[in-house]
Amino acid sequence: MRYSDEIIEEVRSRNDIVDVIGQYVSLKRAGANYVGLCPFHNEKSPSFSVSPSKQMFYCFGCRVGGNVFSFLMKYDNLTFGEAVRALAERSGIKLPEQDESPEAKKMRDKKATLFEINKEAAKYYVYQLKSPNGAKGLSYFKDRALSDETIAHFGLGYSNGASSDLVKYLKGRGYSDAQIIEAGLASHDEKYGTHDKFWNRVMFPILDVNSKVIGFGGRVMGDGKPKYLNSPETPIFDKSRNLFGLNYARNARCGYIIICEGYMDVIAMHQAGFNMAVASLGTAFTPQQAHLLKRYTDTVILSYDSDGAGTSAALRGIQILKEAGLKGKVLNLKPYKDPDEFIKNEGKEAFEERIKKAENPFFFEISTKEKEFDMSDPAAKTEFHRFIGTKLCEFSEAVERENYLEAVAARYAIGVDDLHKLVANIASGGGIVKPAERPKSGMHSRENKEDPARKPQRVLITWLADEPDIFGKVARWIKPEDFTDDLYRGIATEMWKSLETGSFDPAGVLDHFVEEDEHRQVAELFNTNLIQVDTKDEREKAIHDILYEVKRSGYERKLKSMAPDDPDKWNFTLQGKRELEELFKAKITLDK
Questions:
Q1: CATH number for the domain that contains residue 20
Q2: How far apart are CA 380 and CA 372, in angstroms?
Q3: What is the pLDDT of residues 227-240, one digit of tens each?
Q4: pLDDT tens per residue, range 311-351
Q5: Which domain holds residue 408?
Q6: How far is CA 582 from CA 403, 529, 587, 588, in A?
Q7: Rounded Cα distance, 63 and 57, in Å
Q8: Rounded to whole angstroms, how far apart are CA atoms 592 and 275?
Q9: Residues 125 and 222 grouped into a single domain
Q10: How many domains does the chain have?
Q11: Taking the CA of residue 218 as centre, how many other CA atoms within 13 Å lie in the half-sphere pointing to its CB?
């Protein structure tokens, strides 16, 4: 839902950017602004600046910038609408409902109730863990070397041996049997009536990316079956679209996320400082989970158990990541089974080394396949080499294929020329590889240079943002349609509206742009320092030349877009030339 400009402006104005960013970044006053270490890239010297007057932030290191909405969108990977809602909630602003139909309201109310029930259940399980009844569960967590801080951080709990304690507790809080059952926390049958879904289990609350409890996983104490039990699908819990620990991992900002198999692996990794770990929810890794991860990273490291099932899961995961457009790597945990076991035996530093050496998925697939061949048998070895050749044919880009071919040849002691011939034979037989397109000459094509018309437009916007008092001088000659660049024209349109009424606010201009790259470019324009000129005459000459170039470019763009037989073309040409000549001769003064 796109909220009205009035609502967006109210939310933004009620959330001071220094206060909001100060909750995430340590800021220090530096003149008119605040500075700190940028949360979006690694740096030792602060290049991250927050302007209270402009209500904008900008990093001079990585060139990320924007207003308070932009910051939350970037930091918490939110959509624009999600950022508006988060800040509205922070400032106590009630937003209009997205859909006022009775059906939509009923579903919203139902989901709100289910969230409440799950939250109450989580509190109840924590209480049980701390009570004498939970001694068995607490002992289990302590045996797994979890600290009190970690237990509290993940909200771990215990469901005791009685089969209806939670149901009684929730009914005492005013919830009906039907609601408790729909939340996935109870079942009903004729013999036992409505009874708890989980009992005699240590409990792992499952949170969505907004840290709301949506379900639970429970591990049985003793030899009961099933060993692990998860909440069933509910209106707020979809196993295939959520990941355990993602509410923490999404803010890890280390450039990658590690996905492993179990809750305890995630918890042990977070306790050891690896807060980028997540786990699927009792199901195999899904394409929906891959697309969810893509919101927060472009690289995923698979850390599955080192047994056969784990290897198969890793191979499936590689394909899913590839289809989702994510870079994948595979963590080698041998001789240990899982991350929890590895960290307990080898420690944090050794695990960090394994992460650095996480295997390329192509070589992981090859090395896994190699185990199926008797490499001492020439026929089997040849068959394995053919498998490698077929895999190399999957690379459609010639350069990438060549790089892998050379690496494979070196690793498996195959002649490069021989491997080239093998790949060519396989490709020609299956029509897999397209011939590499080579340039017709030895000259590399030059990168497209920036349109020279953009620079004066960019400088004019920056100048106006710094000195809105000169707007009257600028508006005498320039209109938003004179800007040839689409983005700059959009910025100018919003600036002109507010400057004409004397209500110009740089952060408010950003509210009209929702794409992250647009936010970055607008913020860069409003936070660029103009080259200082020494004298008043030099400043006036500079603004005159800029106005003339912007006016000329706009005139030429409009003239070029007009049809040859357009009846207005002749008049437009004469008027445009007359205005340009008038501006060329004019003296622009910047006296206040």
A1: 3.90.580.10
A2: 9
A3: 999 999 999 999 88
A4: 888 888 988 998 888 899 999 988 888 899 999 999 999 99
A5: 372-430
A6: 61, 30, 10, 12
A7: 10
A8: 55
A9: yes
A10: 4
A11: 32
